[in-house]
Amino acid sequence: MCNSVIQVEVIIPTQTKYLDLIGSIGEHIAKELDKFSGDREALAYHLNLVLTEATVNAIKHGNYGNPEDTVRITITIQEKELNIKVYDHGQGFDLESVLLPDFDHPKEGGMGIFFIRTLMDSVTYTRQGDCNVLEIIKYLS
Fold first, then answer.
1. Could you say which DSSP state residue 107 is in?
2. CB under 8 Å to 120, separation ≥6 — which residues?
3. What is the pLDDT of residue 1?
4. CA dist list (Å): 94 to 55, 117, 126
5. Cα 63-64-66 angle, rounded to 5 deg
6. Is the pLDDT of residue 59 over 50?
7. pTM of the predicted model, to two decimals?
8. Beta-strand (E) ranges in 61-109?
9. Per-residue pLDDT for 128 more than 70?
């Protein structure tokens, strides 16, 4: 990929059957980054996981499972930064109040934000107009 900005935008219904598609987009992007000097396979796995977790959270929590609603995902790649934004129309939540998972007594669910924060460089959650936006940044070296 060249020095110009590249942007991918996907809008899906709030249905989990589209999660594989979203994850595979992240994998393909990671494998095609010309100037990325790190482990492409690891980045591909991380992007698949992060995109899948962020999207499932938007579907299940952000839009209350309303199949008539949509989730919008944008992925922007610039010179040394990959920026992911996941938009939903739900009530929102306080990102800072999300607790670490209990690793001594693990349960299903509750790991998504932990994985996203651990694997990426910056995570923010804001309200923009009528949407909540989870913004995830990975710096490319």
1. -
2. 46, 50, 136, 137, 138
3. 43
4. 17, 14, 9
5. 75
6. yes
7. 0.87
8. 70-78, 81-88
9. yes
